[in-house]
Recover the amino acids of this structure.
């Protein structure tokens, strides 16, 4: 049976099983399944020829990816998958990793310690800013810029660096509901060219806000950024956040539900770097981008919208992914600040 026939049967099955659900006008990520498919297909068609932006090349290996790749995937908290484009192409997770290491460390240390040690304040400066370290009260600003993420990684508990790395990979995989692997070429390429991150870690050490050997922390951070994911896996990781920490496919509780509001709050204020305010204004969705071209946006309690395309703008956010997610979220009326989207009729 071909894929379209199977898709059509799946839609029909859920349409019948969700008659009441489908009639609700303003509703979850999937107001009705056909409409959602149309919306993501429209987003793909609208932006697939957009060539704006440049592939990030400060990590040499990233410059080698096919800049035409473009994938969009929506996954609902009940595990429905809606995909279009190159959703099975693997790319490096890069800064999106910061969210999930934050979740690990928050689980170990608690929300208060995270606020005190790392902070939750947007820097308003680029993700790898050294100036921000001089200006912020906590030095690192927040866990989603490089300084904050390297400090977060340095806080991770574990008997050895190799054990911590295994824990990171296992945690990310559990969030995705499938086994993830490092992209070795990306890791080696970044490890050979990450002098700036090493300088950041040394500066943090001088300020007393580095909690492991700076070189080890940067190495672990570089590894976590080099984890390969597909757009579908990224959407699944986002859906785990949306589903109160439980992966929609495996049913396993991975992230402590008590910490989800704090994680999403930092994503909203800091997840798109020095574009976070504008992004929040446009979409009202907690999101995280990576310079590898991925972006994931969380619709709490409903699902996640992920998109991937390698060309990024000056802030380091994928151009097509931003446009696709902004379009989809607007069509679905899932802005979390819209009283109607959170249940007020
Ligand atoms: N690994 C990248 C870096 O440290 C991550 C940056 C990003 O995705 N914005 O520069």
């Amino acid at each position: 049976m071909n894929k379209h026939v199977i898709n059509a049967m799946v839609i029909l099955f859920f349409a019948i099983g969700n008659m009441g659900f489908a009639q609700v006008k303003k509703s979850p990520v999937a107001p009705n399944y056909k409409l959602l498919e149309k919306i993501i297909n429209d987003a793909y068609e609208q932006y697939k020829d957009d060539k704006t932006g440049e592939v990030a090349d400060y990590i040499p290996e990233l410059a080698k990816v096919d800049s035409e790749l473009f994938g969009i995937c929506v996954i609902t908290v009940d595990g429905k998958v809606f995909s279009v484009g190159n959703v099975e192409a693997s790319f490096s997770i890069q800064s999106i990793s910061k969210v999930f290491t934050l979740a690990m460390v928050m689980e170990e240390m608690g929300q208060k310690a995270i606020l005190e040690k790392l902070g939750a304040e947007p820097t308003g400066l680029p993700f790898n800013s050294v100036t921000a370290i001089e200006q912020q009260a906590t030095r690192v600003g927040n866990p989603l810029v490089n300084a904050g993420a390297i400090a977060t990684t340095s806080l991770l508990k574990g008997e050895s660096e190799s054990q911590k790395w295994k824990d990171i990979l296992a945690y990310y995989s559990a969030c995705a509901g499938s086994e993830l692997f490092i992209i070795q070429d990306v890791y080696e390429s970044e490890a050979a060219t990450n002098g700036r991150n090493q300088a950041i870690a040394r500066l943090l050490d001088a300020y007393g806000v580095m909690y492991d050997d700076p070189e080890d922390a940067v190495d672990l951070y570089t590894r976590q950024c080099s984890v390969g994911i597909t757009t579908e896996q990224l959407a699944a990781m986002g859906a785990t956040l949306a589903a109160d920490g439980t992966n929609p496919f495996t049913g396993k509780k991975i992230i402590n539900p008590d910490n989800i509001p704090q994680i999403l709050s930092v994503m909203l204020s800091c997840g798109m770097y020095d574009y976070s305010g504008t992004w929040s204004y446009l979409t009202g969705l907690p999101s995280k981008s990576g310079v590898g071209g991925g972006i994931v946006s969380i619709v709490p309690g409903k699902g996640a919208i992920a998109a991937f395309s390698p060309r990024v703008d000056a802030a380091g956010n994928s151009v097509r992914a931003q446009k696709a997610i902004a379009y989809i979220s607007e069509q679905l009326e899932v802005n979390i600040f819209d009283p109607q989207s959170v249940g007020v009729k």
